[in-house]
């Protein structure tokens, strides 16, 4: 039973990690908590439903379409709601992010209604037995897709020119601009990548739970934010680790009989970790000159 719950937790944690990466990348560069990120995840799930149910597309095309749509949405939100407030007080972009979040929730509720929508079957699910553990085809797809996306992000950040510019901007935003880096382009690219990962998470959660709703991004976004802080906000490996850790802890908590408190597990873990390690599991203290 423990092995089975660990597998289920890793599957759930992989989706949390995809969302958490968007939070941590944006914060790492412009120190903004993008509270509209959960709604981008929700929109990605609905784009997946649209592609499968209306355009009769398979999982791969639906996934790519959701990621592209949310990349455009993420860049647009950054340009309209965040960029004009970049030099203002920290409270202004935070309020703007909450406003965007409420707007997207309300818009999707007006379009699709407040009730959950079933995600159309896009793959023929099957169970495979590996010793004492049963793994479904959906779980295999989620783990493979999430692993490929996270590996791709690592490659971009580590070896691609724009990724190196992202790391430079995260170290010192103003100095990076003085050294000739187009910081606006780096920030737009960061929002695009983070939004694409969130959209992928939305589609994968939709096929995993067979349901999407206009309010699915609220709790998932908060949990993913907890995962990002848990791993160390601003740390990409930390967001991955935090998501997996949170998914396993939540699944084990439900299996242990605490299903009524499963949504509180994320916040309880966050409090405990921050009490003993304020920078998160993989975070590092930032030295600021004054």
TrEMBL record:
Molecular function GO labels: L-isoleucine transmembrane transporter activity; L-leucine transmembrane transporter activity; L-phenylalanine transmembrane transporter activity; L-valine transmembrane transporter activity
Family matches, as InterPro entries: ABC_transp_permease, BCAA_transport_permease
Gene Ontology BP term (one): D-alanine transmembrane transport
Pfam families hit by this protein: BPD_transp_2 (PF02653)
Any one cellular-component term (Gene Ontology): plasma membrane
Transmembrane segments: 12-34, 40-70, 91-108, 138-157, 186-209, 264-283
Keywords on record: Amino-acid transport, Cell inner membrane, Cell membrane, Membrane, Transmembrane, Transmembrane helix, Transport
Location in the cell: Cell membrane
Similarity-based family: Belongs to the binding-protein-dependent transport system permease family. LivHM subfamily.
PANTHER family: BRANCHED-CHAIN AMINO ACID TRANSPORT SYSTEM PERMEASE PROTEIN LIVH, HIGH-AFFINITY BRANCHED-CHAIN AMINO ACID TRANSPORT SYSTEM PERMEASE PROTEIN LIVH
Protein name: Amino acid/amide ABC transporter membrane protein 1, HAAT family
Biological classification of the source: Bacteria, Bacillati, Bacillota, Clostridia, Eubacteriales
């Amino acid at each position: 039973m423990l092995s089975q719950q660990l597998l289920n937790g890793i599957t759930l944690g992989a989706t949390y990690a995809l969302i958490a990466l968007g939070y941590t990348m944006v914060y790492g560069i412009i120190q903004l908590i993008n509270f509209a990120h959960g709604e981008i995840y929700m929109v990605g799930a609905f784009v997946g439903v649209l592609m499968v149910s209306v355009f009769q597309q398979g999982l791969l095309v639906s996934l790519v379409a959701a990621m592209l749509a949310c990349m455009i949405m993420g860049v647009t939100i950054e340009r309209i709601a965040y960029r004009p407030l970049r030099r203002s007080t920290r409270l202004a972009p935070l309020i703007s992010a909450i406003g965007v979040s409420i707007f997207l929730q309300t818009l999707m509720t007006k379009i699709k209604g407040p009730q959950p929508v079933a995600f159309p079957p896009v793959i023929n699910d099957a169970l495979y037995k590996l010793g004492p553990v049963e793994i479904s085809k959906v779980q295999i797809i989620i783990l493979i897709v999430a692993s490929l996306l996270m590996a791709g992000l690592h490659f971009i950040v580590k070896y691609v020119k724009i990724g190196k510019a992202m790391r430079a901007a995260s170290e010192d935003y103003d100095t990076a601009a003085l050294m000739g880096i187009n910081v606006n382009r780096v920030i737009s690219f960061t929002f695009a990548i983070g939004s694409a990962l969130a959209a992928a998470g939305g589609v994968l959660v939709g096929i995993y739970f067979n349901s999407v709703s206009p309010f699915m991004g609220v709790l998932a976004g908060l949990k993913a934010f907890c995962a990002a802080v848990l791993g160390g906000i601003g740390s990409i490996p930390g967001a991955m680790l935090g998501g997996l850790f949170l998914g396993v802890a939540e699944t084990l908590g439900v299996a242990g009989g605490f299903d009524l408190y499963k949504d509180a597990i994320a916040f309880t873990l966050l409090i405990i970790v921050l009490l003993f390690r304020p920078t998160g599991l993989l975070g590092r203290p930032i030295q600021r000159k004054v």
